[in-house]
Amino acid sequence: MAMTPKKEKLTGIYISTFIMTVLGVVIGIYGPSRLMPRSMSDNMHLSILTIVVFTVAAAPVAAGVYAVSLHALRHWTHRGDDVPAPAADQTREHPVLVTSWVLASTLLTVFLLVWGLGALSVDNGGVGRNPLVVDVTGQQWLWTFSYPGSNVQSPTLVLPEGRTVEFHITALDVTHGFWIANMGVQIDANVGTTTEIHTTPNALGTFDIRCTQFCGLNHAYMVTTGTVVTKDKFAQWLASQSTKA
Amino acid sequence: MTTTLEHTAAVATEGGGLARKQNFLTALVGGVVFAWLAWYLAHHFLDASSRNYSDLVTTALTFGWIFGFWLGIGALNGPGRWLIGADHTRADDLYYAGENQGRKRYWKYCTDHKVVGVQYIVMTAVLLGAGGILAMAIRTELIVPGNHFVNQQVYNGFVAVHGMLMILALIVAVAGPWANFVVPIMCGARDMAFPRLNALSLWTLVGAAALLLSVLAVGSLTMGWVVLAPIADQAGVGMDFFAMAIIVFTVSTTVAGINTICTVMTMRTKGMSLARLPIFVWASMIAAALGLYAFPYFSLVEAQTLMDRTVSTSFFVANGGGTGWLQANLFWLMGHPEVYVILLPAVGALFEIASVMARKPVFSYRTAIAGMTGLAGLSILVWAHHMFTTGWAPTLGGPFMLTTELISIPTGLFFLVIIGTIWRGNIWMKLPTVWLFGFIFNFIIAGITGIYLSDIPIDNQFHGTVFVTAHFHYVFVGSVLFGAIAALAFWYPKVTGRFLDETMGRISFWLVFLGVQVTFLAMFVSGFKGMPRRYSSYSMIFEHANFVTTIGAYMIMSGMLVLLGAVVRSWNHGEPSGPNPWHANSLEWMVPTPPPLENFDVLPVITEDPYNYREELVRS
Predict the structure, then answer these.
(1) Is the pTM value of this prediction over 0.90?
(2) Which residue among A75, B17, B78, B176 is least enclosed by CB atoms within 10 Å?
């Protein structure tokens, strides 16, 4: 039994790591943005970007582990029905490898964390002057939106493009989850408390609001469509609604 | 070498009176009688017009059930006799250890750790089977949009009970069978530290599982497995069964956890220092310790839910001064550590399997322990990442993001240890190894998608969607279940003396492995597209992905059925394996198969850890 196993070619591992990393990066860049709902706010844009960055950062790690596994399956498996002899290489410790592994994973984690905290502070960034306040009330199984300053109460959400909206959210019966699927913002509607989120719609069109907190029988049907319109159209809509009321 | 302990063949089953006739059947009778008695008394003495009447009556009934079940199985005999000063004799102890009782002992309150291990295998199969049937019902309902197959009320109950059954199944899937069957032998002990508590933990689990399954009979559970307040208040009496099942279950895990820790700490044979312990023993002990921390929160939160319903407290009721956020905090204080209580034994078993099958020592043994300990330690500091979008304490978002992302460091160590162990190995491609490689593939996906969710800007998009569901199914099905099946295939020959059927096992592997990818990759697609969780129906944009997910789920189910067939068939008809089929060095392989009562004639003396693979040892 040779105590120093002969040097083995590991180029296969490097090549497949590289190929799978490229594959992971391509999937990471094109996959999520194709699948996810159309982005209608900076928050949503940031969510998608962060997913891309994290996927790109994680791709080499996954590729490396998969490459070694594939190499092991091809080259390090015992052939034949007999009991395999002890491996020639009986390494128990490798201080340099362990240290570099810990350092590398720590650095990667720190990078993800710094990116994440940065993205979080952008997400939470100032509401700015003159936000539009919308009061959101969830109940089984519908949403009601009212616009303070007017007497408008509406079952659908209409928002002006380019103006920050601050949602004040509460619930009447049980906890609901207020989520604008196209804007990357979500927060629970709780009984007896008001929670707040804000976002700035930056594209015209319709979006979906879906309940993300299990709320009983018709949870699956607690879906509302909203619309982002120009500031002028929003003013017209608000006026027409308030005369109706 | 087939030495068995030839105890005198005295018929131990005679004498001893009623206590020796007790088995599962008398436990059922006892449970039902006392449940009825408690129901009758509560019904008689309570005001039927009171708001809490039905919840109080139900709670009384469940208390009666578990007390009667304990009485009927004989759980109270030992402590009772000790209390009145007529403690068990040696003959009694041997009787309760199942001496000379053949297969009957598997239906009894048996204190032999190997019998308890086998009982746990059966319980795991029962829980997985019941949860799996519900999973198939859920996926069948979701195969096309709209409600066709089950109505929404029933569907919601299925989701809740599926979730909890599977959580219970996976908590016991590795720790139940193998921390009981092999850990004492690995330590060089004749039994667990507390054999009676061992039997108590198993039969308490049976009682809890019965309560949980009865939820399906009474229906009306409408709040998902995390049973958020205040929606739990809207549920019918099914909620009382549910809460009581969990309270009883935590008794079972606490007792089992104390037993595992005490066994490892006090029952090791001479020379078995902590640094020579097989890595699986470490994993079992760390998981048990983490369980002792986590599960009290579980019983606490369910007890408070139950009290809100029965005696009008208002821990979680907003208009009584309570808050649902308290419920969520307590639940996740349990809920995140619990994930690692489930994961660690599976990972420990896979370390063991990687070493034996690659014919190499566990790579960086101390890093493996550090990784598991680090994971357990961090896990108690991350619970609020489940609450990023609840609105509770937004300023804590950053700190909880930090602790959560740190978890990738100890998790990364698991990959280092497994990859380092198979590196340049002489890998024996048998059934346990196949499932090990499946685990490596799936656990990478589980880990990376977990990193997405730890990040608040991403979580704001994905929280509450099936993206989360797909992520934790990669953890629980793709990783833990694969580890549990690898462990089953690995130690099955020690239990039965026969190999688990290799062909059927591989068919099962490919069905489950491909099924997991089809099911949960498609579920990730639904998540990216924005489908919320716990939906009984969905809009047309999610149609294709859901159809694919359902097909994948059927693949997993058929694979699991093939596995069940293999387990049943190989039990009596499998290829004989001998006492040490994998030519491993740890103590469980040094005793005969099946191991005799009390395991060792003479306790062994240990001089090195079990990872020195040398020709002469391997040929033993």
Answers:
(1) yes
(2) B17
